[in-house]
Each structure stands twice: as structure tokens, then as C-alpha cells.
Design goal:
Zincin-like; binds zinc ion; 4-stranded mixed beta sheet; about 25% strand; two-stranded parallel ribbon; 6 strands
Length: about 110
């Protein structure tokens, strides 16, 4: 089953906007970022093979923030969780489609 990632995802009581930001990696060295204040996840669209991993990684950061999990900034822990969720989606035959998201300009 293919599931298109929406432009907005609700986590807890808050809506988080998902968008592309070109050259994000060139400017920040990150494939994705999450801004807790703006409630935004940005993903560099220039790296299509890592879009799903990056999306899951950033969403897990947001979940950790929302639910006050102590490892919010622990990149290794967030990576492991993202990998686990990717395996779960693969096992359930769910393919996340990350396309057509709004293009966001750098701040
Ligand atoms: Zn991270």
C-alpha cells in the first residue's frame, strides 16, 4: 500500500507542517530539520533515497518533543527508532510517498 505523506501531521494537540527545502544539506549538513517553535519539518529533496528515513527521523524528534521523551536530542536513539519504524512499514507493505510537499525558503 502506498501512503502519501501529507503537508501537515498532527502529533498530540499540535499540527506540524512538512515541507521541502532545497540545499538544506549544503547549508546545514543535515538532510532534514525540525523546528520545535515553528512546528515545521524540512526535508532536502535532493536526496531521494533517504527521504523516508529523514522524514521518519524528524517526525520522531517531534514525537519526542511533544511527549517529553528524554532522548529528544539523542541522534543515535532517534535513528534507531526511525529504522525500526521503517522496518515495521516494510513488513506491513506500506510505502511512504514523499512528494509534492511545499517548497520552503530558508530562514
Ligand atoms: Zn536528528
Amino acid at each position: 500500500m502506498k501512503v502519501k505523506v501529507p503537508k501537515t501531521i498532527r502529533i498530540g494537540a499540535l499540527d506540524y507542517d512538512i515541507g521541502f527545502q532545497r540545499n538544506l544539506r549544503l547549508r546545514t549538513d543535515y538532510l532534514g530539520t525540525c523546528d520545535y517553535q515553528l512546528k515545521e519539518i524540512s526535508i532536502d529533496p535532493e536526496y531521494p533515497k533517504t527521504l523516508v528515513d529523514t522524514f521518519l527521523h524528524e517526525v520522531i524528534h517531534m514525537i519526542c518533543e511533544n511527549y517529553k521523551l528524554p532522548f529528544r536530542s539523542n541522534e543515535d536513539m532517534v535513528n534507531r527508532l526511525a529504522h525500526g519504524f521503517k522496518e515495521l512499514f516494510d513488513a506491513l507493505d506500506i510505502e511512504l510517498l514523499i512528494e509534492g510537499l511545499p517548497q520552503r525558503q530558508p530562514l
